[in-house]
Design goal:
This protein is of the alpha/beta class. Helix content is about 40%, strand content about 15%. Helix 6 packs across helix 7 and helix 6 crosses helix 8. The structure holds pyridoxal-5'-phosphate (PLP). Pyridoxal-5'-phosphate binds next to helix 3, strand 7 and helix 7. The site of pyridoxal-5'-phosphate has 20 residues, from helix 3, strand 7 and helix 7.
Length: about 325
């Protein structure tokens, strides 16, 4: 197997990120609930995409790219962080975003405006249309360019979360469960593969916040990432669990997600987001109340960031 350290990587974040116990949540649910603070990765407003971009943009650099393209929804945290990282590394980011969601100058759109980012919208529901447009624009520019898929979720990007699992193992605590949001799949696939390699005894749970075929997506990314690492592993759907927390739709707040955002705000002084981490934490609350997590077990919840969404996506009020 190839060590992760042998893959080219650019330093973008502040690692390792801290692990912190949620004392009030733990007391309420009779388990030991910890946060892996990947909302503090140290670029932009933090978030999980920084770990993926360390691998992806090293590859872009190696290929002498001058322009970096990526895509996502209008409020994509991934697109915003790609712009921040590319700027820092002296490559020009061009974001070609789906015209769905909040396109007004709020949340991540505001941050992209502050960074002077070239943001374009395409009225399509197909990422293939957008990747074709990247090639058209890139060829017209006549410079070497690099395309990062939606969410940075390919095999190389997923290595960022294999590395995160190795980092968690190095922090010394043992966890019975590891919980994350699943949007484009790279984070979950990386953690599930990383847990197989570095966290024996830890069960990985993905909380689906979109309606894609995630079992298939996760398996494919796990196998492709394992192939990159030349790791001979028997990978199957038994390696992880999935739960559907999408609610009314991707990037639309759900009542239980908003309740989880409020719970952490009120009891711990910490902020989740309505699109990913709030819904994922609502899934963790289900696990804590339906017996999936046994009393006294240790649970690690990946806080994957998403602060921009709090300032763009409407959350339903309770009354
Ligand atoms: C992108 C994102 C996720 C989901 O990660 P994927 O690798 O796309 O599945 C979770 N939380 C936040 C805040 C994100 O921006």
């Amino acid at each position: 197997m190839k060590e992760l350290q042998t893959f080219p990587r650019v330093a973008l974040g502040l690692f390792p990120t801290p692990t912190q116990k949620l004392e009030n949540v733990s007391r309420r649910f009779h388990a030991n609930v910890y946060l892996k603070r990947d909302d503090l990765t140290g670029l932009g407003l933090g978030g999980n995409k920084v770990r993926k971009l360390e691998f992806l943009l090293a590859d872009a650099k190696a290929r002498r790219a001058e322009v970096v393209f990526t895509t996502g929804g209008a409020q994509s945290n991934h697109a915003m962080l790609t712009a921040a990282a590319a700027n820092r590394l002296g490559m020009k980011p061009i974001l070609i975003l789906k015209q769905r969601g909040v396109t007004a100058r709020r949340g991540n759109q505001l941050l992209e405006h502050l960074m002077g980012t070239d943001v374009r919208f395409m009225d399509t529901d197909s990422y293939d249309d957008i990747y074709a447009e990247m090639d058209r624009v890139g060829k017209a520019l006549g410079v070497p360019y690099y395309k990062i898929p939606c969410g940075g979720s390919n095999a190389l990007g997923s290595l960022g979360y294999v590395a995160c699992a190795e980092e968690i193992a190095g922090q010394g605590m043992r966890f019975d469960h590891l919980v994350c949001a699943e949007g484009s799949g790279g984070t979950m696939a990386g953690l599930a593969l990383g847990a197989k390699l570095f966290l024996p005894g830890t069960r990985v749970h993905g909380m689906m916040v979109d309606s894609d075929p995630f079992e298939e997506i996760t398996l494919r990314l796990m196998r492709e990432a394992a192939a990159l690492m030349e790791a001979e592993l028997d990978i199957s759907a038994a390696d992880f669990s999935l739960r559907d927390l999408c609610g009314p739709g991707y990037a639309i707040a759900s009542p239980e997600g908003s309740e989880a955002v409020r719970l952490l705000a009120e009891t711990e002084g910490l902020f989740l987001d309505p699109v990913y981490t709030g819904k994922a934490f609502a899934g963790l609350i289900q696990m804590l109340t339906d017996g999936t997590v046994q009393p006294g077990e240790n649970v690690l919840f990946l806080h994957s960031g998403g602060a921009g969404g709090l300032f763009a996506v409407e959350m339903e009020e309770e009354e």
